[in-house]
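Two entries, shown back to back:
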Amino acid sequence: MFMFIRGEVRAVGVRVLLVLAFVAILANIVLWIIALFRTSKLGDNLLFDRDQLVIYDRTVRPEDIKAIMIKGYFNPIVGLLPHGKRIVPVEMVFRFTSDEDKGFADLKNWAERNQVRIVHRSFQRWI
């Protein structure tokens, strides 16, 4: 490999390229481990209260939610989009792991009772 520096060509050491490749691969592995850890939390506790929703021990009020977004048809993922955000935070993403029909019925009833809109479309989430 050659690099152009101040009008002259210098050879870049193979070791430098190998170190850069190793760092890139290591960073990729760390990001995958973080993503797997976060997705393993899917399916934890979700509690519907009359005027709040408790997800992963975090309380969310209806006035803080812009929309409830549902992504996918088979084994769908649900995200709570906060006001003022474009990307659904990962701590507000969940999936019903058991009795999916009852979960979606309860979610729909809670959303109607608290005037939160439900939209069926793809959404982005951070890792």
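entry 2 starts here
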Amino acid sequence: MKKLLMIYWLLLGSAGLALAQSHVVKGKVTDASTGDPLVMVNVQLKGTSTGTRTDASGNFSLTLPSDKGELVFSYLGYQAVTQGVNDNMNVKMEKDNKQLDEVVVIGYGEVKKRDLTGAVVSVKGEELKKVPSTNVMESVQGKLPGVDITKSSGAAGAKINVTVRGNRSIRADNGPLYIVDGVQYENIQDISPNDIQSMEVLKDASSTAIYGSRGANGVIIITTKKGVSGKPRVSVNSYVGSSKVAGYPAMDTGPQYVALKREANHTTGRWNSVADDPLIFNASEVAAIQNNLWTNYADLLIHDGLQQDYQVGVSGGSEKTKVYLSLDYFDEKGLFKLDRLKRYSGRLNIDQIVNSVLKVGMQSQITYYDQNTRPDPLNQANKIVPLNLPYDEKGQLILFPNNGSMINPLADEQPNAYQNNFHITRTFLNAYIELTPLKGLSFRSNFGVTLDNSRNGIYASKNTIGRSTASSSRSQYNTGSKRYISWENVLTYQKTIRDHSFGATAVASLLSDQRDSSFLQGEGQLLPSQLYYALANNVSGIAVRTSYLASKLISFTGRLNYNYKGKYLLSLTGRSDGSSKLAPGNKWAFFPSVAGAWRIGDEAFMHKQHFFSDLKLRASYGIAGNDAVSPYSTASYLSKIPFSYDDTNSALAYGIGNQIGNKNLKWELSATTDIGLDFSILHQRIGFTADYYDTHTKDLLLQRTLPTSSGVGTVVQNIGKTRNRGIEIGINTMNVNTHGFSWTSNITFSKNKEEIVALADANTNDVANGWFIGYPVKVFYDYQKTGIWQSKEADQATKFGYKPGDIKVRDVDNSGVLNTADRIVLGKQVPTWSGGISNTFKYANFDLDVYVFARIGQWINSEYAAKYDPQGLENSANFNYWTPERETNDYPRPNASVSKDGTPFIKTLGYKDGSFVKIRNISLGYSLPSGILKRSHISNLRVYVTGKNLFTFSKVKDYDPERGGDLSNPLTKMYVAGLNVEF
């Protein structure tokens, strides 16, 4: 008992001593400019987890272990404050305008984010590296409001499709203009995401107007990294990932195919039992049926792919000389053999201050591609009769399985059978000289050159899929050369007079684009090892073609920016472009724009409210042009025509080519109105931007089909009108930020209504080309399938000329007759809306990023859904088809006497709702603590794992509908492990 009492008094004494040493601190936190109390401010003892928050009156009380130390006050939207401990603390916090003061790159200049008058989205380089990809544009899919990005296929190095605010042109190019370090650059896939400092997307006419005709479809500006003064900094970035097919639907198995063909012949009365199999299958197929031998060729063709990237960047320099050097190796192996891309690139950026008025520099990059591609083999794999084995007992390929007419889908993969190899070298150089002779005045001259040289060699032996019906091999050797030269001179002047700020920019530019190519072909190569070389030795089919294209664009631009008290902003732009592609008298056009903004949040009447942290209203209007047609569209050309006087004597003859020239060709014009609202609320906890735009395009550059009586095929004319209007929303939120844990979200939403307003004949639809007034450019126009005629509907089907088991379509006009008047627009190939949500979680040294992307309202023509052969001559997809014993509304009755093309309304089977939601990216990273890294001279080390394109949710089973309905080169999902190190 005495021992217990002693322990009790010792504990009580220790507690009393601790209380005697503790220290209570009280205080109040207010806004430095308004004096208003700040609620829920984090108050934390520096270097510890001890802390509290301010109450509704801005007051706080915190018990500390002693009267020593410093308190850190942090609050979203305000600059952090650190103060020594006092008994009664009065803390004033300044607003943090870092986001508004961020510099955004615009055409031929930079502005602070707060001074933007146009619709511009900016993405920092760190964001671009979150999704490992071949093309940097893929990494921002769904993250840029108003920018629609899709991948064309799953092949190595596949193209990325990008449109900004929908399709304006019907047949002219709708892709955006890419500007890299101030120079136009077509091949954005050359740029490593690790080399990019920032990306800006210019969307409205005011922002793009300074680029004139080149910016009609939006502008994407990429600024690469530059050197920094001081100690050299080295970064190493690498990742390795394994790619797998992102769902691929299966064709019929052997038994399923047998059942289909039996039913097709049962319909005609040729097959009634298994005893009749020899009547519809050959001897080899009968043996395969009896032994249950069949092959799924897709499984043999599709393999796991590989993607890896290794990049080293070095940045350094002095106060006057700054250098950035980067080397990158990228390797992607596709899902098929013979599908591989290797990219080697090097970048050197140098900036040199010569003296107080002169600065020079250059940005340069060289990129080399070594790429092997192949025709997609799945088309052959999906139609070949599966009742066979691909190899014989010795493991040798059976070229024509079961003695059939279809070649083995694995034929191209055999040694010396097929090769399609590209060698591409691109050199990019942009040199500049910049003079600042007076304060506020600068002159910069940029000279950019892009040299593109390519060679494509193709060899296909007679034992390949493409040559299976030919008697000899074919070799092709194609070369191409592009020379793009840009010379731009930019004069800028900045002046501030009391509350008035002026900025003037004048630009004169000359752009030259020259391209030539050659095509060589021969058949019957003597030695397979010679591939596509020594074409003169080919025994037949020698063909030679060459081509040349050239165009020039001369431009003069002026822009005036005005700012009054930082609250009222005005921008006026005018650009005059002259294009060599257009007709004399129509080569020049003037493109004006105007934009204004009102920073409501800076008004005096807004200072006493606490809901809005920032508020700005924007509006703009402008006209842009488009000359995106092939050079020489104004001229008719001659083509050689085979001609002879008699059966033995030939002669040379020439005629007008397929396309006749148009001497009246002029600019395609787009006028855009944009109204935007930017604001942040709750001390910048939530940031919001929204734009409404309306674009009217007229004088479309349209290739029009001419009647055969004209003697030519087509002509490019200025005919038709389109309209694009929609809304774009971007939301950034700070959901949680406390005790070392943060959760931020980024939400985007884009809704675009795209429609054709007029065509060649005013309000008349162009059914032949699938263009319809009031609908988008790309739609599906056909009969509407409503089911299959059932046995109980036999009498009604007969009235329409059909029978039970046939496809039933809607009688739109209720005429009692099914004809072309019953075709309607079933769906559009562009989405009704798209968007994404990205959530980033950080705790201690861990970071987790989850990104979800959606594309809703688009339709696809599913190749799989239409993969149905009612005759059973080829393999089919596994579908529930109609039989008298098993009636269904899915697919028509098999019929050996009716071909696929002869089956009424067979094309209606493929039209499907292609809307989808996908988990685009999940990435988990860990950064080593700085204390550990100091001993190894490493400033930062982060390891991460990423899952890309992991899950897709749609109505289309076992298929990723992002790329449309094609079965070739399926899209992939990828699992990645990566490393980022900085020294």
